[in-house]
Design brief:
Strands 4, 6, 8, 9, 10, 12, 13 and 14 form an eight-stranded mixed beta sheet that branches. This protein has three helices and 27 strands. By secondary structure, the chain is mostly beta strands. The termini are far apart.
Length: 415
């Protein structure tokens, strides 16, 4: 059979066509907020996990809030509105002129350029607009403010934040249409802070000193000097307290025996060295940064906590009733920003002892408090030898009673 032949039709534009579809993706945005001194929470998948523990800030200190905005969806987001609001107590505690929020061009977590523009808003609210945040990306903002120097101790000062955003959805006509990301609880977050200043005080007492009691980090009452003889060990109990609300840092304790005391007693070595971990009254770990026979430097002491240490001296020289041998102690510390704490009378203390070779007090059986933690071990109570006096007095009264009884018996017999 004869084959037919065909000629190709000339191609024209009418022989082509195309169409586009829009896949909007799933919109999802979350936000997380934390002040720089807040502890106990870790950022995971755009939110903080764990229980937040509010940090305490001193007067004049800067608060730095980190805000993380995360696009967890598959749709790119645009016009992300971030509103940061301080509660009235926090707003009254900071310098309003010092409040700032990140603006300008920033780099996202994946390196994209994000433009952040400030938007006018009412007092106490900082509002910015992020132009775009791609799917699976995140951006970090910072809100900062300085506490007033006159701020008093307070707790639970709150700062809240929320985010809203837009994405491209599909309209009824099938074309891209702007839409608002549905609001969820994860689009809001908050964090609280506490305010207050560290207040250091120190108290000192030799183990045989009587007549005083500890109250609010200081000894009160009238001191009665303890008596020591050659060979006795003087144990000075030193308590460092932070009665304020904020932590104190780089706390330095100086032991200063008088020259008169040093002529009768020598300083014994201390059981601490760099790196030693001490335990505070509340069970917190306190690290030794440096130590010598006369000086101790520790890293920090939380507000409302205290640390008790024992320094020792040994009486090396006999004497007859040499009293008022003084030993002083002082403490100093710093704020979190490194500035020195203002020195007060509470940051110094002293105690005095008497050296007398005729004393009946002996060092044997005294309670040894030389543990690395500075805590006093269990056992007989030190610093109070009145029991011996009472025993002697009772024996004397009993002896006098016996003598009077014998004398009365003899009289009756003669009669």
């Amino acid at each position: 059979a004869q084959m037919e032949s065909y000629e190709a039709v000339e191609e024209t534009d009418l022989m082509k066509d195309e169409d586009h579809i829009h896949v909007p993706g799933t919109p999802s945005v979350v936000i997380a907020k934390k002040a720089d001194q807040t502890e106990g929470a870790v950022l995971s998948e755009g939110r903080y996990k764990g229980t937040k523990k509010a940090g305490t800030y001193a007067p004049g200190e800067e608060i730095d809030y980190t805000i993380t905005v995360t696009n967890k969806g598959t749709a790119d987001l645009y016009e992300l509105l971030v509103e940061d609001a301080m509660d009235k107590n926090l707003l009254a505690s900071v310098s309003r002129k010092s409040i700032s929020i990140t603006t300008g061009e920033i780099k996202s977590e994946k390196g994209a350029v994000v433009k952040v523009q400030k938007k006018d808003s009412e007092e106490g609210i900082n509002t910015v607009i992020l132009d775009r945040l791609n799917a699976g990306d995140a951006a970090v903002l910072h809100v900062k403010a300085l506490l007033l120097q006159t701020v008093s101790a307070a707790s639970g000062l709150n700062n809240a934040v929320k985010v809203s955003a837009k994405y491209q959805d599909v309209g009824d006509d099938g074309n891209p249409s702007p839409a608002q990301v549905p609001e969820t609880p994860q689009m809001r977050d908050e964090d609280k802070i506490n305010t207050g200043a560290p207040i250091l005080c120190i108290a000192k007492k030799a183990d045989r000193t009587t007549g005083i009691k500890m109250k609010a980090g200081r000894y009160q009452g009238t001191r009665k000097q303890g008596i020591y003889a050659k060979g006795d060990v003087i144990r000075y109990r030193i308590t460092i307290s932070n009665t304020g609300a904020a932590p104190a840092y780089r706390i330095k304790v100086r032991e200063t025996p008088s020259e008169r005391l040093l002529s009768y007693a020598s300083i014994l070595s201390v059981p601490w060295k760099k790196g030693t971990a001490l335990k505070s009254q509340k069970g917190k770990t306190v690290k030794v940064l440096s130590a010598s026979k006369r000086q101790l430097l520790i890293d920090r002491l939380e507000g409302g906590d205290s640390l008790t240490l024992v320094w020792k001296m040994k009486v090396t020289k006999s004497a007859e009733d040499i009293s008022d041998l003084k030993n002083s102690v002082s403490v100093e510390g710093r704020n979190r920003d490194g500035s020195s704490l203002k020195k007060t009378a509470l940051m110094k203390d002293k105690d005095a002892v008497t050296v007398d070779e005729k004393t009946n007090h002996k060092s044997a059986g005294m309670n040894d408090t030389n543990g690395p933690s500075g805590r006093q071990s269990s056992g007989a109570r030190t610093g109070d030898d009145t029991r011996i006096g009472w025993i002697v007095l009772l024996l004397g009264i009993s002896f006098m009673g016996i003598l009077l009884g014998i004398r009365q018996y003899r009289r009756e017999k003669r009669t």
